[in-house]
Amino acid sequence: MTASTRTVPPATRPASPRPATGATPADCHPSQADHLQRARNAQARILLEDYVELIDGIAGPDGLAGPSAMARQLGVSHASAIKCIARLVRAGLATSLPYKGVALTEAGRAMAERVRRRHRLVVSLLRAVGVPEADAEADAEGIEHHVSDTTLLAFERFLVRRPLAK
């Protein structure tokens, strides 16, 4: 047999530990799929937290916030605000009164207070380590959603022992 007539088996390569482009989470390694699912859940939770915090902050004396005002504040379309309001209602965090606005339920108000408290605590920690006020406020807006309760307790213990930086 000459070299030109010999058949060479196709090259085999070990399976890649990473999924091919377009793979679904089910195709991923279980821990990777878990991480992806947790990331998606976190993004959904962050959106709801931002909305309840905003509603609580802009609601009038009647407890209602208008979807148009919410959309303007968040820089999203009116349709996006309406879609998220529907999610808040399904989650039991808000009630929607047609042509009047959105009001938080007790669970929604509790979530808004929890997010505000986390925000204040993160800002306080950032200020204590010397971050300027404007930067601390901006940075805390993202950090407040991702920091664990364990870490928040550590922040509190640290702040009790160390006064706020000027």
Automatic annotation (TrEMBL):
Quaternary structure and partners: Homodimer.
Cited Pfam families: Fe_dep_repr_C
Localization annotation: Cytoplasm
Domain Iron dependent repressor metal binding and dimerisation: 105-159
Official protein name in the record: Manganese-binding transcriptional regulator MntR
Biased composition (Low complexity): 1-26
NCBIfam families registered for this protein in UniProt: PRK11050.1
TM helices/strands, residue ranges: none
Region (Disordered): 1-34
